[in-house]
Design brief:
By secondary structure, the chain is mainly α. The protein has a domain of 105 residues. Helices cover 42% and strands 0% of the residues.
């Protein structure tokens, strides 16, 4: 009887410790952003001058339906997180990424063929310090409440 009780107690303890460890890990990281992955060809976290020049060719690789433009479904990965907070309140909309706002010059929510062709010029407008490359602080929106649950690849309408 004591052995059964000890086994049950050990099992419950292991379960509690496992649940606590999972809670401490926090939410899963956001999925990789397809646009940033495509533009940052060498995956060093910086969009270099060469990567900026190659942006039109790179952006065309995101055009899943080959219609010559990039729409919301091609810019945003599916979000695995529910649109609500743990207390069932609605999450506020995520701010649009500066890189998307810069590329979508007419603000219609679609990056057209002309906007893709003009990508190097549009991307250079984000180079706040004029060093010829785009670093994380220049291309990602500020996150005052921590990392976003999903990609912030959205275009403001």
């Amino acid at each position: 009887m004591k052995t059964m009780f000890l086994i049950a107690l050990l099992g419950i303890t292991a379960w509690v410790l496992s649940a606590t460890a999972q809670d401490m890990q926090g939410p899963p990281p956001p999925p990789p952003d397809p646009m940033l992955q495509a533009l940052d060809a060498n995956t060093n976290g910086v969009i270099s001058a060469d990567e900026i020049v190659n942006a039109p060719t790179t952006l065309k690789t995101l055009d899943a339906n080959s219609d010559g433009q990039l729409t919301q479904d091609e810019l945003r990965p599916a979000c695995p997180m529910p649109p609500q907070n743990a207390d069932n309140t609605q999450r506020p909309p995520l701010p649009p990424m500066p890189i998307i706002k810069a590329l979508d010059t007419n603000g219609d929510g679609v990056i057209s063929a002309d906007e893709i062709a003009n990508a190097p010029t549009a991307l250079k407008t984000l180079d706040a310090n004029g060093d010829g490359q785009l670093t994380q602080d220049e291309i990602l929106p500020p996150c005052p409440m921590g990392p976003p649950p999903c990609s912030t690849n959205t275009v403001s309408e």
